[in-house]
Amino acid sequence: MKFSSAELALSLGVLGLGLASAVATASLSGEGGYANIGPNFMPAVVACGLVACGLWLLYEVFSGGWRERPPDDPAGRGDHPFYAPGFAWITAALAAHMALIGTAGFVIAGMALFAGVARGFGSRRWARDIAIGALIAVVVFLFFVRFLNVNLPAGWLAPVLGSAGV
Amino acid sequence: METFSALLAGFGVALQPLNLLWGFIGVTLGTAVGVLPGVGPALTVAMLLPLTVKLDPTGALIMFAGIYYGAMFGGSTTTILLNTPGESASIATALEGNLMAKNGRAGPALATSAIGSFVAGSIATVLLTLLAPLVVSVALKFGPAEYFALMVFAFTTVAAVLGASTVRGLTSLFLGLLLGLVGIDSQTGSPRFAFGVPELLDGVDVVVLAVGLFAVGEALYVAAYQSRLSEKIEKFSGSVMMTREDWKRSWPAWLRGTAFGFPFGSIPAGGAEIPTFLSYATEKKLSKHPEEFGHGAIEGVAGPEAANNASATGTLVPLLTLGIPTSATAAILLGAFQNYGIQPGPLLFQSQGDLVWGLIASLYIGNVILLILNLPLIGIWVKVLQIPKDLLYGGILVFATLGAYSLHQSWVDLLTLYVFGLLGFAMRRWGVPVGPVVIGLILGPLAETQFRRALSISQGDASVFFTQPISATFLAITAAVVIVPWAVRRWKKARPA
């Protein structure tokens, strides 16, 4: 029998999420509501809904595939085949940003994010990307911190950027 | 008359120099960001929300309205010159608009789109002004049961009726509802699905969800599947002037487009796709030059653009009068209102009339600003459009992460953002609609509150939803919109014509 393994995985994911919500719902208290409708009622409805959708999706997987889905063939969608480095670079850039923002500060993290994302889109001009990323991050930082009073971490650059930020 | 004086007072608010300035900034920024390829109105509004933190509620809402209108206009420019519709409602415009641009008629295409948006937006705002007080007077009689039934109707049309697949629409809706449950239950104060993570106790922020789905998800998708495709930006040269003939062919299309767009926007059925395609089909049928369709017919740009804009304004009717968002963008706007402690609905017209009418008045002004700002500045927007993808997405993600991080100064929100990005990637790749998630997140908690209130008033008697006439009517309509199309399909299948 022919079926799409991606569809199967996603359908099982929805089903699993529904079951997990059901388990999490079971530990919620129903106390505090009127007429037996407590804070656990809606979670139960949603868990049932997700399980039902998961089963429905599973049924479609094995009865000819999800209906009216965008084609798997990239050219059919006007796309090129999956380009793993692009996906990976963006993931790495976001992870680096997460790791850096609390310690190195907003500007350095933003610079790394910008350069990493640009790399994911095929840029090889590191120097240019880092320079532009730094410029954008500094301008955004100063605008938000000085003008909008939004707290952003200055991190390692605190001596240069002044005491603004956290 | 009462409406008129309220509107006048609204103009008094909207025309205050500072508010005028916020409106102006909103329109400009909205257009500039909305022009960026891959950035639709929903993402534009979500990304620019952090900019309004320092404003008072009225100023902030006026700026949002400007951003919303600007984003719509910016999106049309991109669609015409680049043929990458940022949202499904722009597909109809892309059909003829891009062909006009290919034939060297980019100027008139942009002009008919801009002027058509102005005409449609202005007429739709007049209709909104007239209709809103009527809806409010009806809605004031609604109790929790009626609201709940209305929300069920909105959920059903948004998730199950529109879109290619009912089950995928519903899956998307339930995901949104699940996310809406995270945090502290508003009725009892007990935490749900937070797993002891402090950042989750505040609930899932609509900006994080929208930016994750639309910005991070889009960046992942484009990098993985489209980064090495070359895109052709149609040259824009010469004048934006429309000829006499262009005017003659455009204005009936604008009016008909408005007539399609506004009603579809204002019933809680959401979605601008249907009216834009209806308008496209109508123009094609009525045109004296049907042979031009498929080669760049100006009516094919004028009509759908007007329909799209009228529908966007129409969406504000259920949003402002009932507090029900029927599009992803409207849901984000509602989230922004809530950040200011404002709950749109009939009561808001009474308790904060200045704010609501100031907002409505600013829509009239926003339309005028758009018209006088955009055609002369078209050269700048074309430049913005030419930013290469590597720099464009780098910049988008720096902004996207900023909005998420500034919530709690915590990397946990950035991780959540990435998870939503993966979700957005998967949904785009496998054809799951994104709108219902955002609507579910915002509307779910409101629906739950109404449901529980209704049952506590009826002392647990669930039949209340079916015995109250208005509530029963809404539920009957809901059942009809699900069953009728299904039955028709069945019937057609059974007897192939």
Distance between the termini of chain B: 54 Å
Q: What is the structural class of chain A?
A: mainly alpha
| Inertia-based shape of chain A | flat
pLDDT < 50 stretches of chain A: none
Radius of gyration of chain A: 24 Å
Helix share bin of chain A: 55-70%
Percent helix range of chain B? over 70%
Order of helices and strands of chain A: HHHHHHH
Distance between the termini of chain A: 59 Å
The description of the largest β-sheet of chain B is:
2 strands, antiparallel
User: How much of the sequence of chain B is in beta strands?
Assistant: under 5%
Q: What can you see in these coordinates?
A:
The complex is a heterodimer of chains A (166) and B (497). By secondary structure, chain A is mostly helical. Helices cover 64% and strands 0% of the residues of chain A. Chain A contains seven helices and no strands. The radius of gyration of chain A is 24 Å and the shape is flat. The termini of chain A are far apart. By secondary structure, chain B is mainly alpha-helical. In chain B, 75% of the residues lie in helices and 1% in strands. Chain B contains 23 helices and two strands. Chain B has helices at residues 2-14, 17-35, 41-48, 57-82, 91-102, 106-139, 144-161, 166-181, 198-201, 206-226, 244-266, 273-286, 299-314, 316-322, 328-339, 346-351, 353-374, 378-385, 389-408, 411-429, 435-457, 464-467, 469-494, and strands at residues 183-184, 191-192. In chain B, strands 1-2 form a two-stranded antiparallel sheet. Chain B starts with a helix and ends with a helix. The relative contact order of chain B is 0.18. The mean pLDDT of chain B is 88. The chains are: A mainly alpha (166), B mainly alpha (497). The interface between A and B is large, with 84 and 67 residues.
